[in-house]
Amino acid sequence: MAPAWRRPAPPHARHAAEFAARHIGPDAAEQAQMLSAVGAASRAALIAAVMPAAIARSRPMNLPEPASEAQALAELRAIAAKNQVLKSFIGCGYHGTHTPGVILRNILENPAWYTAYTPYQAEISQGRLEALLNFQTMVTDLTGLAIANASMLDEATAAAEAMTLAKRSVRAKGNTLVVAGDMHPQVLEVLATRAEPLGLTLRQADSAEAWAAALAGDDYFAAIVQYPASSGWLHDWSADAATVHGKQAAFIMVADLLALTVLKPPAEMGADIAVGSTQRFGMPMGAGGPHAAYMACRDEFKRAMPGRLVGVSIDSHGAPAMRLALQTREQHIRREKATSNICTAQVLPAVVASMYAVYHGPEGLQRIAQRVARYLGILVAGLRELGVPLTQTHHLERGAFDTLCLHTGADTERLMARAVGLGANLRRAWGEYICVTLDETTTRDDIALLWRIFSDDSRSLPSVAALADTPSLMPAALQRQSAYLTHPVFNTHHSETEMLRYLRKLADKDLALDRSMIPLGSCTMKLNATSEMIPITWPEFAQVHPFAPADQLTGYAELNEQLCRWLSEATGYAGISLQPNAGSQGEYAGLLVIRAWHRSRGEHQRTICLIPESAHGTNPASAQMVGMQVVVVKCDANGAVDLADLEAKCAQHAERLAALMITYPSTYGVYDAQVKTLCAMVHRHGGRVYVDGANMNALVGLAAPGEFGGDVSHLNLHKTFCIPHGGGGPGVGPVCVVDDLVPFLPAHKTGGIGGEQSTGAVSAAPLGNAAVLPISWMYIRMMGAAGLTAATENAVLSANYVAARLAGHYDIHYSSNVPSLKGGGVAHECILDLRPLKDSSGISAEDVAKRLIDYGFHAPTLSFPVAGTLMVEPTESEPKAELDRFCDAMIAIRGEIAKVEAGQHNGGWPQDDNPLKHAPHTAAVVGASEWTHAYRREDAAWPLASLKASKYWSPVGRIDNVYGDRNLFCNCVPLSELDTAA
């Protein structure tokens, strides 16, 4: 008999919670130590002390028993196999593309890139900031426009943002957007959704005559076109742009970035704004996302541009350094006056797209585009040889880049079915047309396949080789003459060796979750397990088109159904849409649902949205985007909503009250004991309650918003349910609603979703960022109800442990004021108040944040929600040793502050020359021959002995944000400047 250690364990003895034990950092013994430090007898006792009993779940979550990692992967593989991966010629903004292996392995599948957070702490984000600066340079070069942001959520929402950017940037006073009808239908859908609540009108022109008539009017603020048109034809829009400018309006182009490598760019035709998708620059179709959209505009519009903008500034030593510029923080500052609720981006896909351009360079991109265009010419030439009638193609005489649109009349249905039978998907347009789009992955065999679809089986096919010299269909006058991607970064890293080392160099500059704990309050930076990540690049998930026939997407349909059902169990809601592709989009969709419900009852006047002063900055921004008026509700001294003020404002606005938006637990990191009371109060006055799900990691398994009074919530799957942040995106922000609001969930007509009462599409694809949904499916499937509940309890325990260890050194700003708990008792995060220390030492919260870099840590959330504080959220997946390492660092920093408080004359340090004021310290500074500071080199670089064994060095000193905003520069830094700095 085999020895015991080699015999498989019997089924009943296998560890059912295998994955949960790997996901949750502290083991049972460590949890006991943490509970002892906090002053709680058990996790259950801790939860009972800090969470109101009134909101406890009425029943456990009904979820499948947890599966092992191998079992869950096998189950998901079976679901994925139900998708059919046919050759896609659908186009419509989604294309086959080859992700270079060096980019696939070293970015998309690399935790150094996908576990990083938004680059708010710029000094430890120089790698991804450089990649995003490459992205911005790529976009400005290809569009010809002056400035680009660091990516948008998808092409359709980028077009909608361009619409509102134009509205607030031009002199024209009209409220109409003139829309060229031959645009991707999903772009038209999202434009319509976004326009209506803002009182904007779309005037769609479906013919040349209607277009000319619309531009001749005087009631529009902008016009928007697709380039190339959705059905493929090309046009020089210069004269049209001049006409629009004559009306003091803006001209917007939704432009294909690959086409711009060979076609006249938007700026040369007079475009003011260009938007589009970068999907075909190396990101798989993934049933619709995640993909980075882009936005570029003329220089005059830059300070009104939504989203993030990476700019170049200088650090404390005068060297160039990158950081987020201008409006990056406006959503938290401007609230209801914000120009957009987009506070995120699609960073990981944007990095992939930028590196695709770096790897291929201008010549490589042009070669790919020219090959696509020539294959289209060969396709058309072969169809002519076969006698396929081309007399009624859709404007083919104007030229085309990658798409052919044939009038197929009564044969349309037959040809579409024939294509599927032969293993291909085509696109049906306007009932009697078929569009065929080629891409980077198109081969000679694909051309032959298309000829076979449109020809008689008895006919012999033309020879691709014989037609090899056929020119493209691009008109000479529209072929690009201007240079692009001239910066050395796009002309250097073309071998895999060079590219591999460049990517490693950038990754080494950053602090991501693969190096250390990221204790960001309200951001929930937890483990993104490898088993959860593996399925996203499976071809069955990655290589399918979002508008493929429904019977080819049954795997995604099953994934959607199961994930929605499980999330409903977690939240207590009746219905969920996974379409929103960011938390901001989930907020927007949820408020649209509330608005639509009131309007269905004839209560159009209900437009007041009550929002506590502690709310996330995106909340009021989202409210104004759906046409609601924000009224701020006060909070009490403990951070809870002031019930008296809420009652007064509910009564004052009773006839107009639409909604109350709250975050629960609150942004202050405490469970509001009166949450059921305030929900009932709003309901009595006819309003609905929106519970922001940003802090759901403190609720799963313990309490459900749909049970304790919420009507609508969005979730952040990139927080609570383990989709990684990707350096600031992708994300998923599902919208969850109670039963009577289910009919109002977002539609997607292009994707075949929606009923009579549905709100409009909020994202370009029916399932939004569909390709990352398997991550959350895997997490829930492996954790089960007990594992998810344990994760929540441990997240709360970890936060309370940090609060308990630090309570003797820093003021805990808000707590539940439980006398028996050291630190007072908090939810999943705690706020450290540094304002008293600023008064006593001159050391600010920002100084502490920068000093933490020297200790090898990403800073907690800085000065939000309270200025002068740090908000710490440790999550459940950090082991006790890492929590202790963070606490040791914070305690050591408090000791350093004490030395500043003592002053130089008492053996301490001056307020203007100490390790905190000069942090972070670079290796170049510490290793310099001259050292003039009042503190030692060892104090600067190795404040704890453990750092001598493993040390992260900040690549730059503290960055001057003011200099960067006054001297705005948002493209790749010229080599001459880098040389000078060196």
Question: Can you walk through the features of this model?
Answer:
- The protein is 37% helix and 11% strand.
- A seven-stranded mixed β-sheet has the order 2-8-7-6-5-3-4, with helices on both faces. A seven-stranded mixed β-sheet has the order 15-21-20-19-18-16-17, with helices on both faces.
- Strand 5, helix 11 and strand 6 form a beta-alpha-beta unit.
- The radius of gyration is 28 Å and the shape is globular.
- The N terminus and C terminus are likely disordered.
In short:
This protein is of the alpha/beta class. It is 37% helix and 11% strand.
Structural descriptors:
982 residues; alpha/beta; seven-stranded mixed beta sheet; 32 helices; globular; disordered N terminus; disordered C terminus
